[in-house]
Amino acid sequence: PSAPLLVTNSSSVTVLFNSTSHLSGRGLLLSYATSQHPGRRGAFPWDVRASPDPPLTLHFSVYCPAGCKDIHGDIWGNPSQGYRDTSVLCKAAVHAGVIADELGGQVTLSREKGITLYESAFANGLHSKRGSLSEKRLVFHKGIFFLFAMNLRHACDDVLEVAAFNASSWWHEVDVLGQYRAWVAERAALGTAGHSWAAEPGTEDSWLELDLGTRRNVTG
């Protein structure tokens, strides 16, 4: 369009999208900003900034509300490959482990060149689909790293990035102070502030899985 920026003083806008027939990937991207409440975040605001490394890669900051795990829509891909750009964004964020479904939160992602095939995976209570070639893909960035134990740091001075966390249980509680506490697998990441992950009381055969995204040789 000749005027892609729409400015309004109203607190709501209705967008009507007409499509003669349904095709995978057909849709629209809506982004907005507010000048009166710059500190507030809506359900899906996009803050776009250019990333200096690599050049021309755009990073987006998106706020996802709680409860996106059960919303309608599909996701294709996995945390290590990225997700087909037709995937439901916040649902994919839960699958990737960058947010807990019970809490929601801010996520950072980039829109990068697509790949030929997206492999399915089960993670964080969601099963993604196997997907075909797409022009673009969504890659989440969370900056969570898994470090070797201190006594191995000199022998193996390396850092492994964890692509995804998975666990036998995800649960939440309200502690004696009335504070909400989510026991999600991502809490097991080394360096995470606050409490770590623990299995739900009464759970048998508890386990924690770290997906490193690719084949690695780990000595321990």
From TrEMBL:
**Record domain F5/8 type C: where:** 147-220
Q: Boundaries of each LCCL domain copy?
A: 62-138
Q: What is this protein's name?
A: DCBD1 protein
Cite the entry's keywords alphabetically.
Disulfide bond
Q: Does the keyword Transferase apply?
A: no
**Which molecular-function annotations from GO does this UniProt entry contain?**
signaling receptor activity
List the GO terms this entry assigns under cellular component, sorted alphabetically: plasma membrane
- Determine the domain of life of the protein's source: Eukaryota
Q: Which InterPro entries match?
A: FA58C, Galactose-bd-like_sf, LCCL, LCCL_sf, Neuropilin_MCO_CoagFactor
Q: Does the keyword Zinc-finger apply?
A: no
